[in-house]
Amino acid sequence: MTAPATTDSSTARHYHGRDPLTDDVVDLWVVGDAITREPVSGAVTVVADGWIIPGLVDAHNHVGIAPGLGVTIDQARAFAHTDATAGALLIREVGSPLDTHPLDGTAGPVFIRSGKHIARTKRYLRGYGVELDDPDELPAEVARQAAAGDGWVKLVGDWIDREVGDLAPLWTRAQLDAAVATAHDAGARITAHVFGSDALDDLIAAGVDCIEHGTGLHADQIDALVEKSIALVPTMIQVDNFPEIAAGADKYPTYAAHMRKLHAAAPDTFGAAREAGVAMFAGTDAGGFIEHGRIVDEIERLAQIGFGAIGALATATSAPRRWLGAGTLEEGDRADFLVLDDDPRTDLSTLRRPRAVVCAGVHVV
């Protein structure tokens, strides 16, 4: 039995099923927006069988970005709802020109934010973030964005340098050392957008906490990620757009060829990172090129590079939730979970047709 979307969240509800990640029997009681593992007298059993998983995590998402920019908070709310109905109930928003904090406390996903992108002047997409004329101001800007976010800061590590005609790093090693130290002193973690290879050595050596995209990773850099416990969010469905990006870069043939080469090598690059033991998490890069609500597409792509169904599912559920310090269906956690009819270990497509998506105790599907 499945409760309808209008389920009264004031009534205690019971969900019984099995966890495909552990094969354990799961019994959850939902009271308001929270989970208890203790039986609640008078609770209504709304699910008596099924597969229960924590709400999916989109570890690279931008509800405050859309083509043309100028996103309003109401539009961002609609994008977040699209993600939630696709099962993404925790969103790591890695850069937004719009302050999306007004979405907190509403019936929607939990957000963990990094403030605005930090780039150099004319070295990133116009209007997306903060552009620094003086790169030595990077630590001060990191401090500002750490205060504006929810424990993360986002740097643009490389982008096309039009004078060079190809991807190139934005920052020196000394600037990165100072930026990382500033973020960590503020209690924040720091991540970096990187497509190519040249920026990676300094970013890794400086001690960033995560790499976004990472298509240019070489074997020694992959080993360094493992050694330094640096995570990777590969955004595979965004990398699928690299040929289109290259097609629009006729003025910069070296850059266009580079993007095509990165795209062709990406499955092997990410497969090697997985094999080496890099901590990898599912993220769509929704906003801009990628439509919202595509987290299952990303999970399926990760399954294809060697994770398999159960490993790919973990990259979007338990693993990123532990990484981000979020709930994993334990006592007192926010009631964010999916109920599936079929075992996702044998059929990931069941994620596309959940029996229920429970967000803060409310059925949104």
TrEMBL record:
Pfam assignment, any one: Amidohydro_1
GO molecular function: hydrolase activity, acting on carbon-nitrogen (but not peptide) bonds
InterPro entries for the chain: Amidohydro-rel, Metal-dep_hydrolase_composite, Metal_Hydrolase, Metallo-dep_Hydrolase
Domain of life: Bacteria
Domain Amidohydrolase-related: 52-361
PANTHER family referenced in this protein's UniProt entry, alphabetically: ALPHA-D-RIBOSE 1-METHYLPHOSPHONATE 5-TRIPHOSPHATE DIPHOSPHATASE, AMIDOHYDROLASE-RELATED DOMAIN-CONTAINING PROTEIN
Identification of the protein by name: Peptidase M38 family protein
Annotated organism of origin: Gordonia otitidis (strain DSM 44809 / CCUG 52243 / JCM 12355 / NBRC 100426 / IFM 10032)
